[in-house]
Design a protein that fits this description.
Layout: H1 13-16, H2 20-27, E1 49-56, E2 67-74, E3 77-82
Antiparallel strand pairs: 1-2, 2-3
């Protein structure tokens, strides 16, 4: 079951406060959203999708291999991770 609570973010909260809808509306003023009238009603409210990415270039001093990490959350539930 997916937890619809907002993800807990320590630091970096300023990015989450940005209003991306206004930002994109100013960049794409003619864009509209088509909503199909046959789509069923929502069972829960909107949920945030959050992605965290980190990398360490040439982490291994012998092989010079890098490390990359990816975590995707829906609400506060992780749905995909990669390392």
């Amino acid at each position: 079951m997916i937890n619809s609570d907002d993800p807990i973010v320590i630091g970096g909260k300023d990015v989450l406060k940005l209003n991306f809808q206004d930002l994109l509306q100013s960049q794409y003023p003619d864009a509209t959203e088509e909503i199909d009238c046959k789509v069923p009603k929502l069972l829960v409210g909107e949920m945030d999708i959050t992605a965290f990415v980190d990398s360490d270039h040439a982490h291994d001093k012998v092989t010079r291999r890098s490390i990359t990490g990816l975590l995707i959350l829906v609400g506060s539930t992780p749905i995909y991770f990669l390392s």
